[in-house]
Each structure stands twice: as structure tokens, then as C-alpha cells.
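User: C-alpha cells for this one?
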Amino acid sequence: MKRGTRWIVVALAATIATVIFTVFTVDLGRISIGGKSLLTVAQNQASKYLEREMTIGSISAYLTPGKFAFHDVTIKGPFGDSRPFFHADLVTAQFPWWTLFTKELNAEVTITGWRMVVEKFPDGKTHLPRLTRQSTGEKQPSSFKWRTMAVYASGGEFIYDDHLSPWSVRGPNLHFDLVRDNNLSTYVGNAGFTNGIVQIQQFEPMRADFKTRFQVDGGIVRLKHIDLLTDGAESHLDGYVNFGNFPEQEYHIQSTVDFDRMRHLFWNKATWRMSGTGDFKGVFKIPKEGPFDLSGRFASDEAGLGIGNAEWRFPDLHGDLQWTNGRFVVPSAYSDFLGGQLRLAYGLEGIGTAGGAIASLAGDYDDVDAYRFTRQFGMTALEPQGRMRGRVSMGWRNGQFGDTMVGNGTTSIRPAGGPVAAAELPATAPVIPAEEDFQKRRSLGPFAIAGEITYRFTGSSLDFDPGWIATPATYIKFNGHAIGGPAAVAFHVTSHDWQRSDRLFAAIMANYGHPVDAIDVGGRGTFDGTLTNSFKSPRIAQLFRVMYSPPSGE
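Assistant:
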């Protein structure tokens, strides 16, 4: 899912509703001149209501009766050096004069050339002006009823800056229309912008288009339908913003995400690749106090991960996720994997902390096809027949994967298609006949495999704890340092058939780019040694013992 999609919706819904309440809740009908200029009175009364300084450049009246113009209207920011919360080049208000006779003053407001800026400051608060009327519990008598019938705003711009995360949204070309529905005794409207920009931390900027339909219910703005189109994601939402208990809000989200586009936006320097699309369905809640919570489920028919020349496929990928303040987790995700099953868990803890977040990933797999697994690494000379199960886990500091990643894993392999060799040679055994029509480059062919492997790794190293692998003719015990500087892997080999063991080793060498010919050898035996240098260019040192039986007839 896209991190940008969830944040855009919350910020834009809240601020569009903010504009609505700002323009129709200032009670102009109660302004009294009292010996002061209308401009001064208007500014003072508006500032008192908003609990924030508001300035008006000038007020003028049109020739049309009941139509007034307010120029350069500005609502200041919460601090002296803050950008204005709201500025409009022109606000016009029209009051049909004949409504005076009914003691009901109806207004129609038009706003052009406006901008709203909402900021989350380092203290974690947005510090908005007061946007709803405070009830005193007593009804004040009034000769007139004041009501705004419509608000039309065009040529607007919305800006949201989170200085804590940091991330930002810019919504240019913003418009909204708000009208009173007398049948519903409420206000309804629509809003939208195009060619917006979302910037999340140091990641690539994302284009965004937004439109919504909404209804105003007292201090609550109900967003009936939101369409949000961003780079790599298409989302549909509905929800509400409670301005009487701000910042309380809640959204129900359905999104479709393009994995490849997400990779370019958030990991544009990565050498790995992603493919496929996924769907997300969940709920995003922001209470008045306490942490926000985004929880839901995701699913993909098939996701792809490309690393080097290998393409890893994850059919029927699905799982759960939760995002709260400072924490993002995928407690469980499931997928088919190479003929078996895979379960994943991911966590990112300490988001926004000075030292950086800590990431973790764990995977449990079962019934994985060993043959298909080796093919993922290009091992075409080996055809193992077995089923794998195991677990791998790792952790790292976010943004420093290669330098800080540490992990470990275990793998168990059960053989398929026949038995495998024992760790010890039998006390007595028949003579092994020579291979008929010996060919030094004959394929090894399919073979059963079993084993128990335990390993530890970092971003640049791999070490094996004591483990073993067995094929029908060969049993190998091993442990040691394999990758990251000179290798030093000690091993013990028990061969129940030297010829078949030799062809196995020749196939292994071929997979590492060093093809060698098999030799004509027979019998059984054991030997001990150490693999040094590297797996791609190995050397066998410290050979202690070889038991050799010549081919029959030699």
C-alpha cells in the first residue's frame, strides 16, 4: 500500500471541511458598529470568533443591493513566523434585500484566489483556529435569522506540511461548492483538485488528483465518497471529520496499488524489482487524543520480486497490516511459494525516533519443492527431489540494510523418490560394479535429497552451524564460514558409491561456473577436508583420509 495515499486523504478531507466552516459560521448579523469602522469591527469580531487574528484589506459594496466584497482576507497562523492559515484575494457575500422583510438574512458567498495552509508542528499539534460555535447553553434572542445558502470557491490551493515526519501535500486548482439542502436541513457539496503533489520524506514526489462529495451535519463533515488517484494507487473512501471534537476522524478505504510504481517511488535506487498489483481494504481512525490507527487486509493474485536473474513469485498473497504512531506491522501474510506455503511477518518499530526505526522480517515455509528452489538460483545441473520446511528471520536499522542486517535460519529437507545415504558405512557390503559405458560428462539426473541446515548471516557474510545433507550415495557433514572474506568450511564425506559422489561434486562445480569432468572411479569410503578460498573458486585443503576401492576389474 501506498504510504502517501492514506496521509493525503486525512489531510485533504480535514482542511476542505475547515474552509467550509470558516466561511459560513462567522455571524455577520451580530456585528455592531459602535462608533468604529465597519472594517475594524469585522476584523475584531472575526478574530474573536476564530480565536486567531484575522485581517481584511478592504470592504466594498456593489451597486447591486446587498452584495459586498471583502479584499485580501487573511487568517493568521498560530505563531508569529507561521504562514497564514487562510488567505483569499476576494470574498463576496450577497444578501437578497427582500429577505429583510421576513427577518431571515440568507447569504451566498463566493471565494476566489485562496490558499489554506495546515501545519503539524514539532509538538505534534496542528493548532487550528476555532472552527465551530461554542455553545453557552443559552439561546440569545435575535431579530434576524442568519443563514448561508451557498458557498462557491475556485482557484484555490491547499498545503499540508507535517514538520514532524516530515511529509507534505500540495493541492492546487482546488475548488468546492457548498449549498444548503432545505429538505435535509443541512449542507451538501463537492470538492476536488488536480495535479497535486505529495512529498513523503526524501522519497520521490507523487502526483495526486482528488474529488469528493460531502455533507455537513452540525460540527461533523461526512465525506460520502472520495476518489483519490495518486502515482501507483487508486483509492475510494468514505468517512467523516468531527470539527466539534477535532482532530477526530475516520475513513473506510479501498485501494488498488501498483507494486512496480511503488518500488520506483519509495526505493528508486534499489536494484531489486517488483511486479503485480494488490488490493487493500481497511479503516483509518484518528481520535481526539491518542495514536491514530490504520488497520486492514491486503491481497494480491500474484506478486513478484526480482533479485538479480531470479524472479520470485508469490501467488495468492494476502494478510493483515496495522499502522500506528511510530509503528508499522504486518503480523501475518500468507502466500503459495514454489509448490508449498509461506508465512511472513514484518515489523517497523520506532518510526520517527532520533536513532531511526528498526525493521524485522521473519518467514516460515513448508512443503517447498527443492527442485524448483534450486532453479531459482540457476542450478540447472542439479535435480534434487525433496520437500523443504524451515524458518528465516532478520533485523536491520531502517535505511541501512546492507550495513546493519543480521539474521539466522534453519532448513529441514525430507527426501522424495527414494532413501538417502546413512552417516556411516556398513560393516559389510557387496562390491560396487564399475559404471558401464563410462561417460565423463553424463548428467547426474534426478536424486532424492535430505538434510538439516542451520545458518547465520549478515549483509555480507554467511556462516553454517553444524549440519548435514544426504543424497542416495553421499552423506556430507559440514560447518564453518562460507561468505565474507576467505571461506573456511570443514566437511566430512561418507560415500556409499564413489562414482555417484564424484558426479554429484562435478554437478555442484558446474553450477558455480567451474565445470569439471567426472573421473572413472568406484567403491566406497570417507574423507575429511576444508573448503577454502570461496564457493565460486574453491580449494580443498587439509585432506586427512581417503578410503578408496577401485572399479571392478581394475
